[in-house]
């Protein structure tokens, strides 16, 4: 299942992220803004429990988040989404999956993996770009092997091919994306896309 953002602010932020004249400092700030919107959309149905608190005036009932949340960025570009999501959900545990696409084949190679216990948690898997879906499918495979069962994937931009790959291999994983773009080019870059997210984030 794919859900894309339709908030006018999301459209505005995405347009500036796509603009090739946007410099890394602004790009990182815009990445934070869109990550907040993605995180809020992806966590709309988080379980809450009732608590009783004292306001300055009287006792009242409220609700607080109830279930452990694990945030898993796919390195390196996914790191750009971490800090701001941790600001929103300070109690998250964080796991890291390092994958890098080979420039010639566009196949993702694993170079790092460090995950906390995943049983009974909800996992937010974050990676700005969903292109062929190779990285996402590999990351979800690993998370499931380690006991993760409730996984949501957050992407800034998704391509139809990547969405199809995730839906085919992991139909239980919803995708929340800033936008669904048109296609991939012959080097498996997203069109219109925004280029290499990691390079633009880190000025490489
Ligand atoms: O859907 P796919 O075809 O697998 O492509 C998407 C992957 O490519 C990018 O990472 P990249 O491999 O460029 O690594 P980086 O984040 O270190 O730049 C992106 O952040 C995804 O992880
Ligand atoms: O368009 C793309 C595809 C993969 N990775 C990126 O950073 N951008
Ligand atoms: Mg890259």
Automatic annotation (TrEMBL):
GO molecular function, one term: uracil phosphoribosyltransferase activity
One Gene Ontology cellular component: cytoplasm
Catalytic activity from the UniProt record: UMP + diphosphate = 5-phospho-alpha-D-ribose 1-diphosphate + uracil
Pathway(s) the chain acts in: Pyrimidine metabolism; UMP biosynthesis via salvage pathway; UMP from uracil: step 1/1
Necessary cofactors: Mg(2+)
InterPro entries: PRTase-like, PRTase_dom, UPRT, UPRTase/APRTase
Span of domain Phosphoribosyltransferase: 5-204
CDD domains the record matches: PRTases_typeI (cd06223)
Pfam families per the UniProt record, alphabetical: UPRTase
GO terms, biological process: UMP salvage; uracil salvage
This enzyme's EC code(s): 2.4.2.9
Keywords: Allosteric enzyme, Glycosyltransferase, GTP-binding, Nucleotide-binding, Transferase
Described purpose of this protein according to its UniProt entry: Catalyzes the conversion of uracil and 5-phospho-alpha-D-ribose 1-diphosphate (PRPP) to UMP and diphosphate.
Recorded family membership: Belongs to the UPRTase family.
Protein name in UniProt: Uracil phosphoribosyltransferase
Species in which this protein is naturally found: Termitidicoccus mucosus
Source taxonomy: Bacteria, Pseudomonadati, Verrucomicrobiota, Opitutia, Opitutales
